[in-house]
């Protein structure tokens, strides 16, 4: 509770500065309240208005929201459009083809500018090449690529021809990639020979080969390989194709495939509290609409702005705020291949300086680690760079502690840039609760108020509203256009995970705890209420890590919990019972390293436990249930104050508490 209490006690308020409000899309609380009122008085009319304003429709919609099959909602269903047309062609047609769409900076610092016309040409060529290989509307294509222009091109090329992409983060293992290829039923895979991160070449193609060899994905006919490093790769004739070769002779003209507003734009896997990751299915119009609208409202993007979102395209933030939102509104954005600490920990600040970035969007974890680095070395401190172009800062992915907020505000924002602390999720498609840079008085650590049209609330276990000041469960009371439409192939899971009967079956359950301030009604997020961990802004299911551990032949039983961590927000702690006697000393260290690497191979390095403790058993009730709350206390090194009378084996607590 200590972190939460420090957030709740936060009393500093930062009113919007005059220059942030002047000319802002939402220029003050009156303007915000007017939009909220518009949405409340005519919900469908509000969404229809912005859908007409923000998107170019091939065929206009006549219906707005259909709730007849709730909770399977549809929006603008009889309208037709193409996401790639909205992101590219319409800007070129408006005479903006020579504007920069992407300023790409490679790991080694090489910079490449890509105009809207270039991007459209590249997307069209790949779209034609995919069509030639037989990829068609409704097919699923998995993308396993590094941060690259090609990554964005691949996503846009898929949606241009009506194929649905599923991007798998380049840090996931072959097993994770295999599971996603199988679950989504991919017909093609787009990958790279290697990826460059922090001066090192890391394999991708060989991992993809292993994933395909693991079976179940025989539907994958083509493996398209972007040559990033020229490193040696194994080649399967008849299946593997070089990207540069297949696009070489393709035309740069490709008529977009017009699809229904509800056509699946993408499927992105994310961890839940049970079972394997869920394929979160997003619709074309709703998700594109909200990505574009929030670029205007949350980031106040205007012509001349240079936007930089540091997320990876493998996560939802990289979908909505790299591949779609910035392009949909015709913005110029920086796309970065590398890592914040290479060749030095001032890389972000140096790049903001070099590219004259005006709006910068990153994760609290990155901020916290860069605070440490700049305290240790003044040369990499933000103050050693010219950051005077910045006008808005953003954060996403996890709660930001007030200390990190203040540091970001003072040192990166020079005390002049509003910080938009955006709360949202893979499932929500875009921002949900966030300050508006020209309107909302900021309170460090609070994501403040819902965007207009988003009916967020805090309720108790029965779905009843709780009074402000009292913590509860964060829900959204009405469907909104960018919400997920389904869990791919598992409608039952969609219903039970997100619209549980306990809450009445109608409220969208976010999976987070929250509290609203007594006076302002501001929301503060208190973290997940389910068995999902948030490590460096990455979502990890404890069950997934437990399954990975028990699949190791040495392991009899494992339980995983989270522990607060200064840098990563949360850290993974695993309690493990081996089939052999409990190891001690060097043997324990060595087995812990082996198991850590095992999890890295099973899921990906992000899931490696920071701390592994061995016991002869786990704390269980007499009915055999693992008492996770005790494990959480042990992980934190807290004294056990809970009632342990139902525990079958209380002595185990001492063993697990000591065993570090
Ligand atoms: O717990 C919340 C946390 O991240 C979860 C969503 O993770 P994911 O689907 O991977 O999407 C991350 C990027 C949108 C949420 O359930 N979270 C996200 N943003 C915030 C946050 N927690 C606190 N404050 C935020 N701004």
UniProtKB/TrEMBL annotation:
GO cellular component: cytosol
Residue positions binding CoA: 197-200, 317, 536
Catalytic reaction equation(s): acetate + ATP + CoA = acetyl-CoA + AMP + diphosphate
Keywords: Acetylation, ATP-binding, Ligase, Magnesium, Metal-binding, Nucleotide-binding
Enzyme class, first EC level, given as a word: ligase
Location of N6-acetyllysine modifications: 625
One Gene Ontology term from the biological process aspect of the record: acetyl-CoA biosynthetic process from acetate
Cofactor(s) it depends on: Mg(2+)
Post-translational modification: Acetylated. Deacetylation by the SIR2-homolog deacetylase activates the enzyme.
AMP-dependent synthetase/ligase domain sequence ranges: 95-480
Domain Acetyl-coenzyme A synthetase N-terminal, first and last residues per copy: 32-87
Biological function: Catalyzes the conversion of acetate into acetyl-CoA (AcCoA), an essential intermediate at the junction of anabolic and catabolic pathways. AcsA undergoes a two-step reaction. In the first half reaction, AcsA combines acetate with ATP to form acetyl-adenylate (AcAMP) intermediate. In the second half reaction, it can then transfer the acetyl group from AcAMP to the sulfhydryl group of CoA, forming the product AcCoA.
Family to which the UniProt record says this protein belongs: Belongs to the ATP-dependent AMP-binding enzyme family.
Protein name: Acetyl-coenzyme A synthetase
Native organism: Caballeronia hypogeia
